[in-house]
Amino acid sequence: MRKKGFTLIELMVVIAIIAILAAIALTSYRAYQRKAQAKELVTFARACIQEAVAKCLEDSSFTSWTDLESCNISGCSTKYISSINVSATGSCSSLKVSATGTVGGQTYNATCTYNSATDDVTCTSPTT
């Protein structure tokens, strides 16, 4: 007569495999979560570049980007991002804005560029 069922060793092996898979998934999920939270940096970079483009439409020789309100963010924080810094470089025809901040101990950077020839703003995803 054979008994049907699992031995204790078989159950422990299955639980160990599930625990390893959960640990791998949790690590990946936390990295994904930090990157999603860092997407807010694109909002800061885009706001700065939009204000700069508006100022350039008024005065094509304008280059004092730190005078702009949305570009003059230093050390601010949000719910997820700490130490936000926004910096703009270039001229009205070719402008580049970088937003840097710390999320979960990692520093992320997002950039937006403006090309006056195509009148187009392009932003990148945050990278470490």
Features:
rod-shaped; 39% helix; 128 residues; alpha+beta
Question: If you had to describe this structure to a student in words, what would you say it looks like?
Answer:
This protein has a domain of 89 residues. It has 128 residues and is an alpha+beta fold. The termini are far apart. Strands 1-2-3-4-5 form a 5-stranded antiparallel beta sheet.
Label the overall shape. rod-shaped
Order of helices and strands: HHEEEEE
Structural class assignment = alpha+beta
Strand content: 25-35%
The count of helical stretches stands at: 2
State Rg: 24 Å
Query: Main β-sheet, in a few words?
Result: 5 strands, antiparallel
Estimate the helix proportion, in percent.
25-40%
* Amino- and carboxy-terminal Cα gap: 62 Å
Report the uncertain regions: none
Question: How many strand elements?
Answer: 5
Q: Name the average pLDDT.
A: 87
Strand order of the largest sheet: 1-2-3-4-5
Task: Kindly summarize this structure in a few lines.
The protein is of the alpha+beta class and 128 residues long. It is 39% helix and 28% strand. A hairpin with a 4-residue loop joins β4 (106-115) and β5 (120-123).
Record the SSE blueprint:
Elements lengths: L7 H31 L1 H19 L15 E3 L5 E9 L3 E10 L2 E10 L4 E4 L5
